[in-house]
């Protein structure tokens, strides 16, 4: 039976009160966020277009929490289509229910509201969130996600004077529905119209390439300080080279792992990847400085418009930035430059991560591999008259009933546990084919890119170890080149065209986890699968129970209760704001009394 507006408001208020009161007594605090996801009109490249905003902001607000916090995000979907929010790189320990992808969650219908609740258990670092369905990331909806160290855990560098989030990505002046229609019609997206930096177009460094009236990003800094800048490629399909004129970028962290600290004049950041740099403002202030994100692994002379430019402004700056942009790497005929740069990114084995023990205390190189999968992608193919992308000859079809939900209620025929360990030799096929992972196993995955563009791959639920990459076809002998000591642990890695990348994954997180390309067009057309990891022990506690507010769809649609929250949320939000304020004071008093 449907709840009326007032009853829904009261229910939401009681949920917030209960969670907050429980957090007063919990060792790990709860932090609350309200997300209203809606359309607004913006003109980042000078052309008015519909973009997706969070709380009327484009990009959305940054989530800033601390290791082991319980994060509660109430998402209200004000779009005209269903929505899921994905927390890229957040491992969702024991709870793939909160991952926000179609293999684990039913989408949030328009005008509905759904609350995510998860713990950022034993994680630190730089991540981002975005809408994962219907190609919506191409219209925005993304924002930064920071997990700070607990005060008792030292960071491997002096405390920065500031923390700055920079979201970069290729951009089209068509919105996601138009781009989606092109893909559904068998067309390629073509060259992007530009690159955005924090949702804004390029500074007018060139009057031919950049028209008048473009709003650009300015980042203001004080001289003689050190800032931590967290850079995320939230774009669709373009690798970007990131650089700041006349400044070194001291790499410190990537996707939850502290790195060996090295200076770069620029770094290639591929789709879906995140990096932290330490930026020292040690230059003279005769003028402002360019911040640049330009297209890589393309014919850069033809892609000049695909360049984002922002401004680094010292508080004592004496003039505007002028002149040519700082050069990107001149390696058009040297395909090893970017790969060697990627190989130089190493794990800081002596630094503490989220726990007091050094990151390198996990000796991944001495663990026996239990399963090997070679995942090969290729250029798009036609299957049953449709343009599709594949992994090992399989183009993934999202089921109407999410995989994890089907397991919970023993629904048969939703998917097959038959994903091939080696690429199929026959014609490609469209299937809901899933990898059968072994709980507490150690899986080696070779990502072989037989396409002509860079592919980024992401796995939910895990940080994997990047142990090798090279050009050509991977063979058994390739293992002789693996880094078995300080390969970086991260959640998104690039695979160069005509090359392979090898990763190792310790399968200790029970659930159903998405393994996909981050290139949004290829992902949308089927270049993904899931890894299903089950603990068959009776009464085990390695996975949290299905959430009380789980949504139901597909063959379980009959279990979904009607919901009408359109009038209730306003009431609940205003009342819960007062309640949260009062209860926060109460928590503080309880803490003092304890």
Account of the protein in words:
It is a single chain. The chain has 594 residues and is mainly beta. Helices cover 13% and strands 33% of the residues. The protein has 6 helices and 33 strands. A 6-stranded mixed sheet has the order 10-9-12-17-14-15, with no helix packed on it. Helix 1 runs parallel beside helix 6. The N terminus and C terminus are likely disordered. This is Monocopper oxidase-like protein SKU5. Belongs to the multicopper oxidase family. It holds the Pfam family Cu-oxidase. It is found in: Cell membrane.
Q: For the CA atoms, what is the radius of gyration?
A: 24 Å
Largest sheet: 6 strands, mixed
Helix content: 10-25%
Mean pLDDT: 91
Shape: globular
Report the count of strand segments: 33
Percentage beta strand: 25-35%
Span between termini: 43 Å
Task: Write a short abstract of this structure.
This protein is mainly β and 594 residues long. Helices cover 13% and strands 33% of the residues. The strands form eight sheets. It has a six-stranded mixed β-sheet with strand order 10-9-12-17-14-15, with no helix packed on it. A five-stranded mixed β-sheet has the order 11-19-18-13-16.
Give the SSE layout.
Elements: H1 5-25, E1 30-42, E2 49-54, E3 63-66, E4 70-77, E5 85-88, E6 113-119, E7 125-131, E8 143-148, E9 162-171, H2 176-184, E10 194-197, E11 218-221, E12 226-233, E13 240-244, E14 249-254, E15 257-264, E16 267-269, E17 274-280, E18 289-295, E19 307-314, H3 336-343, E20 371-377, E21 381-383, E22 386-388, E23 394-396, H4 403-408, E24 429-431, E25 435-438, E26 442-449, E27 455-459, E28 464-471, E29 489-490, E30 492-495, E31 499-506, E32 511-517, H5 520-524, E33 528-534, H6 568-593
Parallel strand pairs: 1-4, 3-8, 9-12, 11-19, 20-26, 23-24, 25-33
Antiparallel strand pairs: 1-2, 4-6, 5-7, 7-8, 9-10, 12-17, 13-16, 13-18, 14-15, 14-17, 18-19, 21-22, 26-31, 27-30, 27-32, 28-29, 28-31, 32-33
